[in-house]
Each structure stands twice: as C-alpha cells, then as structure tokens.
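Hi there,

I know you've been waiting on this one. I reran it after we fixed the sequence typo, so this is the corrected version. Both the input and the resulting structure follow.
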Amino acid sequence: LVENTKAKYSIQDKDTYNFNKSSFIIGVILTGAIVTGSKQWTSIIQGICAKGWSIPPFIIFSSKHHLST
C-alpha cells in the first residue's frame, strides 16, 4: 500500500518521514507506576527520513505561561 501510494503521487524517499513521540515525567525513575496529581511531563518528538537521516528532536516542556515574542 505504501509503495503503491508513493508511486502514484511520485513521492521520493527523501520526502518520506516517520515521527515518534515519547513522554516521561521529570525526576521519576520507575519501570511502572500509577501517577496521581500534578507532575511535570516532558515530550520528545523524533523524525527519521526514509533515506536514513534524522532531523533534530523536538523537546517539549510543560509551561504555565505562553511567550508571544
């Protein structure tokens, strides 16, 4: 299905990416736990190109304030 779609629309490997997201709580090291209450979550998004190279990861921290500038 993927190869057929790429051929139909002339999509090259250099324009094909896979993105993954991982989230974790800062300062907590556990193999499994139930987390209650307010914790500071951090997310990392990584993108990999089908040609074999990657883009720098996006690191997203939670915040209470939005900076508009």
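Quick highlight: The beta strands are 17-25, 41-49, 54-61.

Best,
R. S.
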